[in-house]
Amino acid sequence: MGLNDLKKGMTVEYEGELYTVVDSSHMFKGRGRAVAQTKLKHLLTGKVISETFGEADEVQKAFLDERTMTYMYSDGERYYFLDQQTYEQHSLNTDQIGDASHYLIENMEVKGMFHEGTFLKISLPVAVPLRVAETEPGVKGDTAAGGMKPATLETGLTVKVPLFIDKDEVIKVDTRDGSYIERA
Length: 184
What we know:
The chain is mainly β. Helices cover 2% and strands 53% of the residues.
């Protein structure tokens, strides 16, 4: 695989281990030598490492099997999912889930990623509907903050929402950056 193919979010196999590319930037050194500076997150441990790859370095794209999973519950340390094909229960620890925990609600469908039969990670939909658990009432005419106010959602995530959003409303949130999209 070429250096230009290393993209954010891609899963790669490096030194016999599986990593997700967290960040990648390409640079040219003297005399036209290209390098890719990357941050890689280990899929099982969650440890992030920085690596610089040259044109001669071997990095292979890891091919993952994708299955539809249903999020069931969390016991605080592990997150449990039901495989919709086999009806087997699988789990991931908090390091493997990462920021996705802010968007998971019971019975939500996600994509489970497997490598050689091992459950590695989940892929969230781009937008998820979440209920507003707590927010201050909006004051008409208060636009000093751009017409936005903080709201705590049912999962504990805090996002900026328009002043007209009230407690117990359901809103759509972008899972890529945690921003408000619209009312659900």
